[in-house]
Amino acid sequence: MNPEETKQKELILRESIISILQGGVKNFTIDSFAQGLGMAKKTIYKFFPSKENLIEYTLMHYLNNLVVNRTHKLMESDENAAIQFYKVNEIAIQTLKLLSTARVSEIKGKYPSIWKKIEKFRQDRRNELLIILDRAKTQDLLMPGVDPVTAADVFVGIIQATLQPEVLLRNNLEPGETAKSIVEIFTRGIFIPESLKEIHNLYEK
Fold this sequence. Notes:
The chain has 205 residues and is mostly helical.
């Protein structure tokens, strides 16, 4: 790809995520998107052969840039593992707050193959959480009897089961606030009181 093509592709990705988050995948069309972008459809199709391909690439690119890159940077910090655990999940929460339950439901209903990739993306975060929880155990920050492997598996399992569109719709829940509640409850259950106090003090500043 030459510099001009790279610039075009970056523009498409930057604007497509805005369009998808605001209007949802149901209302997203290449015709209207190209028109709003002031770009020929053939230019978009040069990089993305179909609407589904563009939506999938956009969502996964967005998740990787916003969640994975920031998570890895945070994991390299000197902060203790309890704070790292909370902050890593805070990154995911802020991302989820940009998606309403209706938007999540549209993705799963209209593009099940993309939804499966999103679920795999969430499952893959388990290994990062396990690294942090292993550190927490080494730093004596976990409650007695808490096993990092079990904790990571249970946490990811709860997130995967709860953040399903049908569960959210049935209980009138929003993804971001629901994830935040799960993180807060889970954190209080696995970390020692001193660690919880540090987290509380951090977010009180």
